[in-house]
Design a protein that fits this description.
With 105 residues, the protein is mainly β. The chain has a single domain, classed as Rieske [2Fe-2S] iron-sulphur domain (Rieske Iron-sulfur Protein), CATH 2.102.10. It is built from no helices and 10 strands. It is globular, with a radius of gyration of 13 Å. Keywords: 2Fe-2S, Iron, Iron-sulfur, Metal-binding. It comes from Pandoraea anapnoica. Pfam families: Rieske. GO terms for molecular function: 2 iron, 2 sulfur cluster binding; metal ion binding.
């Protein structure tokens, strides 16, 4: 069952960028993205290189891993650039006022 977990405020995530958040309800960090005014949340750990994706380059809805240059679609979690092949876990986002929540299972 999903639970609603507070992640950050909208103002914490600059437009066209990504930040790392570490809510106590989650074992590992999460990446919160803002693209064209919409927010997305994925796991922050690259499934290939075991490095934080929040340190990577966000181009549109594609996040590039800072270690090996592989990439993921932040909407679906799909690996879109090798050497990454395993998809990222994505989370549904709820925005209430200035607060961003993730629905975490």
């Amino acid at each position: 069952m999903e639970k609603k977990v507070f992640l950050c405020r909208k103002s914490d995530v600059p437009g066209e960028s990504v930040i790392q958040v570490c809510p106590k309800e989650v074992d590992d960090g999460l990446a919160v993205y803002q693209v064209d005014g919409k927010f997305y949340v994925t796991e922050d750990l690259c499934t290939h290189g075991m490095v934080a994706l929040s340190g990577g380059d966000l181009q549109g809805t594609t996040i590039y891993c800072p270690l090996h240059g592989g990439a993921f679609d932040i909407c679906s979690g799909d690996a879109v650039e090798k050497p990454c092949t395993t998809p990222l876990k994505t989370y549904r986002v709820v925005v209430e006022g200035d607060e961003i929540f993730g629905l975490i299972d």
